Batch of 2 targets.
Target 1
Amino acid sequence: MEYIDIRSDTVTPPTREMREAMYRAEVGDDVYGEDPTVIRLENLVAEEMGKEAALFVTSGTMGNQVSVMTHTRRGDEIILEQDSHVYCYEVGGLAYLAGVQAALVKGTDGAMDPADVEGKIRPLNIHFPRTSLICMENTHNRAGGMVIPLDNMMSIHSIGKKHGIPVHLDGARIYNAATYLGVKAKEIARHCDSVNVCLSKGLCAPVGSVIAGSKEFVDRARKFRKMLGGGMRQAGILAAAGIVAVEKMTKDLQKDHDNARLLAEGLNAIDGVSVNLEKVQTNLIMADFSGAGLNGNQVAERLRTHGILINGSPHYVFRFATHHYIEKDHVEKVIDTVNKIVKQ
Ligand code: TLP
């Protein structure tokens, strides 16, 4: 059976153009700094983000963890949103790899109140850890792909500057945020000191993320990448797909957002299912099935028998994701099928 896979935008295989670019890619040993395609991708992303330099890493998780390791020292504390990917879904890497502890802030739709962030900064005191980093996430995954407003980012960045604390942005889906806001990605990235950009989500590259920041940040990050086993030798073969992702696929995200809206409206019209349509801004949807008395595991199991994949969850509110390979007729099939299975 050919499944309609709406578990995540990470399930997207590389496009034909990417495979061709990968085939043709000029490569060299990137640990020696000699892979021309990796260098091209890094320069491209640095330019796109308005930063001095960039570094190709294996994944979004590595990009975030290497960034945290680069900005902090063991025993420090970092401030981040309680539902952020860095805190929730990176296998405790903060504690295990970076050796830092988290000061969590409860956000609204993923956005932290700047006053709460400032309130978490530790004063100088023999008993306290040093606060050495603030992290943000835009778009915010667990907030259902919602976009953090630029004025919120700007306020948090100024607080960071005032206290001499750098700000890292998990911009795994920064281009979805840029598409929603109708701005260039660098208009978002200017409100942080380092940014992690994922190539392998809605942008369809098979592998990889790029972190960007000052030259000093990237030089130090390169050592941590090597330490974690991320020195990838002829990585140009992967970077070639990343270049297509940045140059082409970033222009294509509005379609995914339109399909997400269509799906959200269709789901919301079903008895027992509700979606807060105001919160559907990009390609992720949080749908509430409590009215139908079904949790995510039950819905996932029923949908699977109809050829549709979503991630299981023990909760009544769970995620649907659109991406490059989801078309309008897939959305219609998902809506029809959900309509059937909630009545089963
Ligand atoms: N998100 C994945 C899962 O890990 C949850 C998904 O399906 O959405 N930052 C953000 C905001 C992310 O959403 C993800 C992946 C990452 C970082 C990590 O990227 P990878 O999977 O490349 O390590």
Target 2
Amino acid sequence: MDRIRIVGGNELAGSIPISGAKNAALPLMIASLLTDDTLTLENVPHLADVEQLIRILGNHGVDYSVNGRREKQQEGYSRTINFSARNIVDTTAPYELVSKMRASFWVIGPLLARMGEAKVSLPGGCAIGTRPVDLFLEGLQALDAELDVDNGYVVAKTKNGRLHGNRHVFPKVSVGATHVLMMAASLAKGETVLENAAREPEIVNLAECLIAMGAKIHGAGTATITIEGVEALSGARVRVIPDRIETGTYAMAVAMTGGDVVLEGARPDLLQSVLDVIAETGAEITATNAGIRVKRNGSGIAPVDVTTAPFPAFPTDLQAQFMGLMTMAKGKSRITETIFENRFMHVQELARLGAHITLSGQTAIVDGVAKLKGAPVMATDLRASVSLVIAGLAAEGETTVNRVYHLDRGFERLEEKLSGCGAVIERISG
Ligand code: EPZ
């Protein structure tokens, strides 16, 4: 199993190209199921989760070609990929595939809307919490779907070939349920109004995609989204937005190690609350024509309290990385997680590097230390792993991060991007 070896202590200087967002690319890829035409997606990151979803969509009959070459997996940064779901050959998403990646449950929306039926395995447990699917099921029922849970599968059908628009209030904000309802309602008969919808930039990106495909959607990016269903959707060409979580991660890395880095192609409007918090810690953040410049000189890191919440607040997907940064702050900070009930697995691994963190329910109290010391650590999930990388870059001596496959799910060419800025970091295979 691959490992990442880091020798910490260097400041970061230079530029890092920001990739297309994983969490935007996945729903856009799934939207290809809504049309028999070709959906071309630009700026798709080359990540394990994307490759896995390509396999899952292939099971339903979605064909794909990368920059015109079928099957050839181009080694490189974000790519343009054509997806074509001319014939849906199977409306079942089996357990073996869905259990590997939770977002694949989202195929239920487009399959049901286009084919009038879908049988999708329940995703099952997940390292960061239970993550149920009740919000999806209630939403689809509001659109008149008939649902049954049988043998671990959700079996969904339309009553007479088509879903029906309705007003639906989500009892809780959910990114995935908003994606699914927006896709499903695009092909439903009549108007759907979604209230208490997620406002994440990835929702806006999906709405842009659906609109380019011919959907009639208003209000994406606000809590109320209105969708006037159409008979059919067509192909389109859409660009995946830059990854705000990757952007925030590297910005925090620079805030921790010190240095001066331009995050090329990053969009400040996608993570303003995060940039404000990083600035409060003492780093200088500037929006430039190229992206975002992050700079920190020798001054200490100021402690800042954060609470995760749906967009536009501080994202849960940057909580672990921020905790990494706070481990070397000059004082105490409180980090409260409100989205997932079990997203503190990085705490004990950061402690192996010398961090002082105590947990009190859903709040971590981080007592900053003057220095961290390198150690072997274990990656437990995607964002937790990268928090260990950030801490390793700032720690004295050598850190080895084991179970790197978590990182490969969501960070494109991490070692290359960081070593290009002066970090000592390498992948050790086997
Ligand atoms: C998306 O997951 C992201 N994944 C997650 O990123 C991210 O952490 C999360 O949104 C929150 O921002 C993708 O976009 C692929 P939710 P999602 O439904 O849609 C509860 C990463 O590291 N809930 O908004 O699954 C749920 O348990 C990943 O890239 C229900 O109770 O998240 C959670 O507490 C991890 N019932 C809350 O809602 C449901 O039916 C928000 O989850 C659905 C969700």
